[in-house]
Each structure stands twice: as C-alpha cells, then as structure tokens.
Amino acid sequence: MKKLLIFISMIALAACSKDLISLNDDPKNPTDVPSFTLFSNAQKNLANIMTTPSVNSNIFRLISQQWAQTTYTDESRYDLGTRNIPQTFWNTIYRDVLGDLQEAKRLILLDNSYSDQQERRNELAITDVMQVYSFYVLVATFGDVPYSKALDYTIGSPEYDPQSAIVPALIARLDTSLAAMDEDADSYEDADLIYGGDVVSWKRFANSLKLKLGILLADADAQAAKSAIESAAAGAFTDNSHNATFKFLSVPPNTNPVWVELIQSNRNDFVAANTFIDVMNTRNDPRRAYYFTPVDGGTYVGGIYGSGNSYDSYSHASGKITDPAFEGLLLDYAEVEFILAEAIERGFNVGGTAASHYNKGVVASVTYWGGTDATAQAYLLQPNVAYATAPGNWKAKIGVQQWLAYYNRGFDGWVAWRRLDAPVFNVPSGLTAADIPVRYTYPVTEQNINTLNYDKAAASVGGDEVGSKLFWDKF
Q1: CATH 3.40.50.720, domain 34-255+324-460, yes or no
Q2: Matching PROSITE patterns, A to Z (predicted)?
C-alpha cells in the first residue's frame, strides 16, 4: 500500500492512502481512521514528549543536570507535584502513544486490502517494537506499571505488573517481532516518520533496543542481560546513519519542541548547568560549541544547579539545538557502542575490547554533533578521556562519556546516571543527595481512581517516593 504523508493540524500528523481513500470519501469527516495515521501520530507524540523541555511534561534535562533554571527553580529542586509532571508524562505515553499504536494494530488486523500478508506482519511487528520502546520508558521512569492489561479498555482499573517481569517480557516481544519481520516485503513506507518503512532499519533498531533493555538488567539479572546482549549485538547499529531520528520541520506545527518552548515562546528559563559544563571544561570537550553558546571571551560557563541564574551570564542551548528543524533522537549508534563497552567489562561475549567500543562511542557522538573524526581522536588522546587513564573505574569512565553523549536526551542521561552512578551530581542548596529523584512518583489520578492497584504498586516499589530505587538500580 502506497502511503502519502500529509499534515493535519487537528492531530498534528496523519497520513492518507491512495488505496484506502476514494474520491467519494470526505477526508475532513472520516468515518474510519487508517491504521498508518495512528502509527504516524504515535511516533510524533513519542518524539514530542521525549524531546520537549516543557516543565509541565519533561524535566529530564534538569534531573540529569544538563540544564539549570533561571527564575523558576522548582523543577531543578525536584518539585514534581506542583505541575503534576508525572501525570502528564504518564498520560501522554499511555494515551497518545501506546493507545494509538494499539488501535493501529487492531485496524491492521481488520484491513482486508493487504495483497501481501508479509506487509501486514511487518507493520504489526514494527508497531510492536514501538510499543516496547514506550513501555521501556514507563518502566524506567516509574517502576511497576500497568502492562499486561494496560491497553484493554474494558478494564477501567488495570493491575500493575512487577517491573522485574516487564523487562524480560519486553525482550521476548522484541525477539518475536524480529522473527516476524522480512526486509523483502513492504511496511509503512512514508507513513513511518522515523525510517520510512525500511524493514532493515527497524530490525537494527529492535536489536539496539534489545541491547538497551539487556543492559538495564545487568546488575539485577546478569545471565538474562548476557543472553539478550549477546544475541542482539551483531544486529545493532554500526554507524550514525542508523540512528532512530524523528525529523521535525522548519515551520509550525511540526517543529522541534525545543524551538517551540525556547524560541517561539521567547523564554529564557534555562542555562547550561555547572554540573555538565564543568565536566566538559575539564576535558576541553569539542562538543561544547555544538551543545551550548559561549559567554564573554568564548568560554563556556554553567549556572549553579538548583539555584536561580542570570540568563545572560551563562551558556545556554546552542542555535543547533534550538533550530526549528533539529531532529529528535530516540536511540543512536554512540549508545550502542557504550553498551558494548560495558558488556565487555561485565564479561559478555560481544567481540572487541571495552576500550575499542568506548572509543567508537566517543567518536560517534562527536561526529554526530558536527565534529570531525580527527577532532574526536585528539579528544581521546587526553589523559582524562583516554580509556586507560580516565579517572575512576570502568563504570565511571563509561558513565561519564555516555552521560555527555546523551546531551539533549535528558531521560537517557538520567537512566545512565542511575545505572552507573557516574558522574557525581551536584546537590541543590538545602537538599541532600537522597532528594535527587531515582524514579517518578505515580500520577495523582492513579492514587484517586485506581487506588487498590496503586497501593499494591507503591508497596511493591518500596514506597511511592522519588527515592525508591527501581529493581535494576542496585548501587
């Protein structure tokens, strides 16, 4: 089925099909929503929620101490409740991403227009991979969440599944989806806003996501982590051209959410955090020019994390990041290489050495942002960057560079910090290290409407507190 992408302001993104929409249909008043429209919309919603810096829905750049705030400091002092941030994030992933993907699956199964059944299988498998990614985000944010019954809309108050059971289940789903995909058949074509329906790319993404899920288990279930990572390594990303990127457009309404929140809204709410800038400065990091703006004299200066800061006195997000068409990044090659470096240190059989994979991860990050290979290699020669001499144990070496590579991906930076306990975060004045969130608290609506299941989940995760460590966060 040939699918032609169009933009509709009512739902942000949609698609129309020459096969499914006839000249006698009224496109402004559809009776049925095509499956690929829902798939496109789910991708857009996922990219938006993971990319936006809105303090109402995504404060991960603040929690991972990439950015600091200027006038309003509640979020960098870990106030999740005033704006009800967990609820907005929860609702967006469940309703606007997982819900659309589930409905897309249902419609794919009902669609009688497929001339090639493998195309149907490809689309179902790709949709499922997107769901796996979305559930991963929820589990890594909250812990126990509704999973097995979450998308059954006949159940008003779904039970929460144990987080330790969800992650292996997600890995198993990836295996099923990988087995179902066939690159010789079509899939979503241009309704797929990440890979244009290319099944080979989706198989690489699924394997890379399997690495991501596997490494999450490393301290909780080393054998399961080893199995997942060793089986996925050969099929994962091997260069930056494989990255899972969402291409925003240069004109509204489908622009980069960072541009929307900072430039279009004319807001000066954020500056670079001293936590992040200080680590980059001590390493003379070449990515500073791509990440941030310089201040007087061409230096890079971070504002005090957790305190108010003068916008004009400190570095802030670069013009690259605030460009309206700058892409959203869900998973990339640098991340794959850092996972493989860690896998080697843990004794997993993925080939190469920890140092070689670490070096490839650094080079991939520097070149993705605009630096040259020569610049990256010179950076790696510095004693505090080179794998053999960088400070700390392997967790610190890999953890710091992975955290730096996750710039503009605050959620992933937060996960990496929790897993590897590196770098050491700054503690806002008047708080303690125990106040830094290691999970989101559950939404207030769950407490009020799904009370019985909420109470069980809260007890299961060790109390519905930001300081309750998730099952994989052992140290």
Answers
A1: no
A2: PROKAR_LIPOPROTEIN (PS51257)
Q: Which two tokens stand for residue 113?
A: 């227009």
Per-residue pLDDT tens digits for 103-123: 999 999 999 999 999 999 999
Query: What's the rounded Cα separation, in Å, for the pair 161 and 164?
Result: 9
The answer, yes or no, to whether the previous bond of 423 is cis (omega within 30 of 0) is yes
User: Scanning the structure block, which residue is given the tokens 């009688």?
Assistant: 112
- Backbone CA torsion sign across 183, 185, 190, 191: negative
Q: How far is C-alpha 68 from the geometric centre of its chain's CA atoms?
A: 20
pTM value is 0.94
Tokens found for residue 402 = 């992975």
How far does the chain reach from its first CA to its final CA, in angstroms?
Answer: 50
Give the HSE-up count for residue 195: Cα atoms under 13 Å, Cβ half-sphere: 25
State residue 9 phi and psi, 5-degree precision. -65, -25
User: Which distant-in-sequence residues (6+ apart) come within 8 Å of 168 by Cβ?
Assistant: 217, 221, 224
Segment 132-149, tens digit of pLDDT:
999 999 999 999 999 999
Give the mean model confidence (pLDDT) for residues 425-445. Answer: 98
Contact call for residues 431 and 78 (beta carbons, < 8 A): yes
